[in-house]
Write a structure and sequence with these properties.
Elements lengths: L5 H7 L13 E2 L22 E2 L15 H14 L2 H4 L2 E8 L4 H6 L10 E8 L2 E8 L4 E7 L10 H12 L2 H9 L7 E7 L12 E8 L10 E10 L4 E7 L41 E3 L3 E4 L2 E8 L3 E16 L2 H7 L4 E19 L11 E3 H4 L20 E8 L5 E13 L4 E6 L9 E5 L2 E10 L2 E10 L4 E9 L3 E3 L5 H4 L9 E3 L2 E3 L2 E11 L8 E11 L9 E9 L16 E11 L5 E8 L12 H5 L7 E5 L13 H9 L10 E11 L9 E13 L28
């Protein structure tokens, strides 16, 4: 019997193992001043410079753990528990145990950093541990065993071991070979089982399904349908094999997606390369590796094991609150800087819920929580220059810990770039005054922080886009491969009245199973400070005009309702009952008396239609509503690797605590239903959903009214290409 190829297993999961062996060198920071011009100028990040991670140090209370800190935590853990050296105890995640929010808010550059601590989620002898390591004292200050009924986030080792256990089963291998598949072509993919009853309590279980990579790297389009093995991860044994009989394996032809290998002609005119040129360099600065300064924005960005990318302490400068700045006045005597005002303490994707709509024995369990089960950080491959990010992008690495506690560098995990796509920030042309020649328009230039993660078959791209008018746009884009199901049918005409209930036929012998995507975001809004925010529901209510009062019959009236408790702020969106949703600081008023605020503006969205007692929906219960609001004392990240956090959100809100004039967190869930079609095969074009955080009486007026337009003289000289 041929041995399965472990190289294929290693290549399967995001290329993560390749990063275990080496550290990477990444783009660095360069900033400076051009003297003698009377105006301060800065050069943005220089992608030609490199940063040595082995000597990097933290500069901000929220900076992620460095390579040196991770290695120090590992040494401390080896003294604390010998199992970390022998392999009987494994690290499932390691991250900064962030200081108290009040301390972070009060901290100023130049102050001493708060005590650096690491939070480690580990598994030892089948028990979950949440360990806090104090780096200053060099000791473990807390080791809590089994704090919940959940299990830590899975590691790469878990996935590899589960595949190996299944492939040691003679019965399983015989079922594979009976289908004409060579074990050398076999790809065994562990998938998560969800939770389907008390009989699964106290057991770490994975189900292993199989694909063939014969003649294609796109094994996802060649499932070995009708077969899976259930593996007990604590006992490392196969506890169940299900073989429902042979189903034709879809063909390899037409599944290739690599540019250099494809031979499929594209009948369209060539699009010439497009690039944004910045002769004076980028307009943004990256200080100390994580603090971003651009236009009127300042924010902290870092990679995270679970969330992928976290944006923290976002502040925007308000030009209506001008204050002299002595350093700038030395140069020009005219420039002034406005007051930096806090908008958001922290924002990140908290969970991704992807339930598939096939209740059969081979598919019912497929309902994934990608952030909590595997983590968006380790699954983030290096971004592809010029394609994932434009030419003017600057890259930031992620630094994580392997299961044995060694530091891993994920190179080029996050990119920052300025975007201009011909959009308009604001405009007006005066048409009603014939003698006036007034045509005013301003270009919209934005700054984007981007991260992409490849969670198995799906790729998700997360964008945080900052505008000079104070708006933040958050976008999630999905691409990659569908999770498909093998079928004996090759044409819809063959189905007759046997239409597959799980999804449509998208290629010969391939069914695209219907599924949902729900992504919930943690948005700790701090409008002009952390302690005095309220959630306001702004309702558009139809009013009937009394007979004889007006030619009109009806109109809309705005009424505002301040949410008093958490249950008041549980929101289901409805087109037929329109609301706006504001986070305001009632203690900060505009000159007109309006409270300073931001509103969340939903984009296209979808709701979960599953019954609330359906096991997948119990785990993904955060999708029961599109908006939740909690006190920020809901410590979601304190158990960030345990797969029960979506349930906790619901349980916490049911306590119905006060949220008025308080430190609150807004949770927003965006989603979309996905009914696959032929265009999604073999790799689906990107589909995106977004929402916006937009100022609402935060500024005294349009904050970009005074922004200068662009003139021809401002741009480099480019000669048009004359075509015949």
């Amino acid at each position: 019997m041929a041995e399965p190829s472990l190289a294929r297993l290693s290549a399967l999961f995001f290329g993560f193992l390749l990063l275990l062996a080496t550290y990477s060198w990444v783009p660095g920071l360069h900033s400076g001043y051009l003297s003698g011009t009377g105006v301060r100028k800065t050069l943005g990040p220089d992608p030609k410079l490199r940063v040595d991670h082995s000597s990097a140090k933290p500069h901000h209370p929220l900076d992620p753990l460095t390579v040196q800190e991770i290695e120090r935590v590992r040494a401390i853990l080896l003294d604390h528990e010998p199992g970390f050296g022998s392999g009987s105890a494994t690290i499932h995640s390691m991250a900064l145990d962030e200081p108290d929010k009040k301390r972070v808010v009060k901290w100023k550059k130049g102050n001493r950093l708060p005590s650096r601590r690491a939070e480690v989620l580990a598994l030892s002898s089948g028990q979950s541990h949440v360990i806090i390591v104090d780096l200053d004292s060099g000791r473990v200050v807390s080791d809590v065993v089994n704090p919940t009924s959940g299990y830590p986030i899975l590691t790469m080792d878990d996935l590899i071991v589960a595949s190996q256990v299944a492939l040691k089963s003679i019965e399983f291998n015989r079922s594979v070979e009976a289908r004409g598949v060579k074990l050398s072509d076999l790809v065994a993919l562990p998938t998560f089982t969800g939770w389907f009853g008390p009989e699964e309590e106290g057991r770490r279980i994975l189900k292993v399904q199989c694909f063939t990579s014969q003649d294609t790297p796109n094994y996802f389009m060649r499932p070995i349908e009708g077969l899976y093995a259930t593996v007990d991860m604590d006992k490392l044994e196969v506890i169940k094999i299900v073989d429902k009989g042979m189903v034709p394996i879809p063909k390899a032809a037409g599944t290739e997606y690599r540019y250099n290998v494809q031979n499929k002609p594209v009948h369209m005119d060539r699009i010439n390369p497009i690039s944004i040129e910045q002769p004076e360099g980028p307009s943004f600065l990256v200080e100390d590796g994580h603090l971003v300064k651009w236009a009127n924005w300042v924010f902290h960005v870092k990679a995270d094991h679970r969330a992928g990318m976290i944006i923290s302490q976002a502040t925007v400068r308000d030009s209506e609150t001008e204050k002299p700045n002595s350093q700038i006045l030395m140069f020009t005597n005219v420039e002034r800087t406005g007051e930096p005002r806090s908008v958001m303490y922290k924002g990140f994707p908290s969970e991704l819920f992807v339930p598939y709509m096939d209740p059969g024995e081979l598919w019912y369990y497929k309902s994934y929580l990608d952030a909590g089960e595997i983590g968006l950080g380790p699954a983030a491959m290096p971004l592809v220059p010029l394609n994932d990010c434009p030419r003017n992008a600057y890259y930031i690495d992620g630094v994580f810990a392997s299961p044995d506690g060694k530091a891993i560098v994920q190179p080029n995990m996050i990119c920052l770039f300025e975007r201009y796509a011909g959009d308009v920030s604001w405009r007006h042309s005066e048409i009603l005054i014939p003698s006036a020649d007034i045509r005013e328009s301003r270009p919209k230039v934005t700054l984007v922080a981007r991260m992409a993660t490849s969670v198995g078959n799906y790729d998700y791209t997360f964008d945080w886009e900052f505008q000079t008018d104070g708006l933040i746009r958050v976008t999630v884009a999905a691409s990659g491969m569908l999770m498909v199901k093998g079928t004996p049918y090759e044409n819809v005409d063959d189905l007759g009245d046997k239409q597959d209930e799980s999804g449509p036929l998208i290629s010969e012998n391939v069914i695209g199973v219907v599924h949902d995507h729900f992504i919930t975001f943690h948005l700790d809004m701090d409008i002009d400070g952390p302690m005095n925010n309220s959630f306001v529901k702004v309702h558009l209510e139809k009013q009937r005009v009394p007979t004889g009062k007006s030619p009109r019959k009806s109109y809309l009236k705005v009424k505002k309702y301040v949410a008093k408790t958490e249950k008041d702020a549980q929101i289901k969106l409805s087109l037929y009952d329109p609301y706006e949703f504001h986070v305001v600081n009632p203690n900060r008023k505009s000159r007109l008396g309006n409270p300073a605020g931001y509103r969340i503006i939903p984009g296209g969205n979808a709701v979960s239609l599953l019954d609330h007692d359906d096991p997948p929906q119990i785990r993904g219960a955060f999708s029961n509503n599109q908006i939740w609001v909690t006190s920020s004392y809901y410590l979601f990240l304190k158990i960030f690797g345990l797969n029960i956090s979506p349930i906790l959100l619901v349980l916490w809100c049911n306590r119905d605590r006060s949220i008025e004039n308080n430190d609150i967190v807004l949770w927003y869930t965006l989603g979309f239903h996905h009914i696959p079609c032929q265009e999604d095969y073999p790799v689906m074009p990107t589909v995106a959903a977004s929402f916006e955080l937009k100022p609402a009486n935060f500024f005294e007026s349009n904050p970009v009214i005074g922004v200068a337009p662009i003139f021809e003289k401002d741009l480099p000289v480019c000669r048009p290409f004359a075509s015949s």
